# Entry
Amino acid sequence: MEAGYPRYLLYGLLILGSWLVSCTLHFQFVHIYLLSSEARSGPALVVLRPSVPITLGATFPPDPSAIGADEDGRPSSVVSSSASCEGRYVYMLDVPSRFDVLSGCVEGAPAFQDEYSMCSLLVNAGMGPVLPPATGDGSDGDTGVIPNTGWYNTYQYALEVIVHNRMRRYECLTDDPAAATAVYVPYYPALELQEHICDLNYTVRSGPSSEFLRWLSSRPQWAAFGGRDHFMVAAKTSWMFRKDATGTCGNDFLEHLESGNMTVLTYESNIWEPRNREFAVPYPSYFHPKSAGEVAAWQDRARAAERPWLFAFTGARRANGTLVIRDRIMDSCASSSRCRLVDCSHGIQGSKTCQSPRTVVSAFAASRFCLQPRGDSFMRRSSVDAIMAGCIPVFFHEGSTFQKQYRWHHPDPDGSDRRYSVLIDADEILEGKVDIEEVLVSYTDEEVAAMREEVIKMIPRFLYEDPRARFQGDMKDAFDISFDAVMGRMRRIKNGEDLG
# Structure
């Protein structure tokens, strides 16, 4: 060689150069493939994150057979395009296990054998135990109206768990809080309070939720908007979370600055506070369908039900006559041959009677009107049960009406309740100026039929679908309506609007 280099050195340089070219080409190929793969599969931040309380997810898992899958075997609920998720991304907080009130709900735990424990009440993703088939002899209170599928013995305070399980399957969850429109807080303040709701020690009642709020406000996700982009469910009425140390039951969860910044969904809101950030959503009833076909079939069933009773009431008196309107209503019902009374006043047996879905729904499905006086607060779960049964609700206070409380779920936010309900002034009843039966009998058959049809049309807006299933059909339930409204609020907050 002219330069005097050994021949093997030249061979070595040729081999090294060939290896470098090969590596460069390989890197470019892999980079191009990954980019094209990402484009095919959608944005990387659309993920399905596991349930935050690990024990909850292990105890109440979604039904895999009910969740559809695409051709790649992924759950179809998480296959989404960036366009369909634009402005709808949600970040789900990871809540420490010490705040998991259902941590003891593991398979085989003794609590599952106790019908009054939270574990046994919240099985099936919060819907509760499956309603057993009707006995057929009427001993369970069922007149044959309730189907044997899609119905559960749902605990009235179970909405926190039901919503959490729906959010677990939400198609636009993201692991990037900066990309999220909203932050979902999967904490259960109502279930936490229920364990010691009337404890004599106020610190026992308020301490755990106060500790949680301190933890929440210390998270980096909180800092950006001071929690105003956070939302959660508190499955009791507003008043139960606004008690100071002088109150006998409840705590001050909603009185804290932190909870006041969030959007909180409760069963009853303070409608007299104009800058309220809590919103009332319907109690969960007993019907949790998996398809629009099931809903339509039930609507037909409610429409065709024979209704021999003019009106019905399900409930109990209050001790020492502390709620006079309920006493007057029960007296009126008991003395009328046109009223179906389900009296829950007689101890444990009476309580069990009113906790029987078949008894309650059958009584309402056999009646034209269902009386809904206030109980411990203005809203009653019974009013939602009446809607499920196609029974026209009769309210006795404006604060109990759907137009005032369930504004998102009211069929016409700017319209009147008169199309599907009756409002009788409680004071006029107590003063003897008005008789309930005389008011109700004054409605013609045609008017009753028209009002009942409006009630039956409202059924989808007041029910909660089976949170384990991929719902079949085009229908928005109570969760969808609430969630759309929450996300609308969050987008306006992110745009700088000062929302009350």
Observations:
- The first helix runs from residue 7 to 41.
- The radius of gyration is 28 Å.
- The chain has a mean pLDDT of 83.
- The first strand starts at residue 90 and ends at 92.
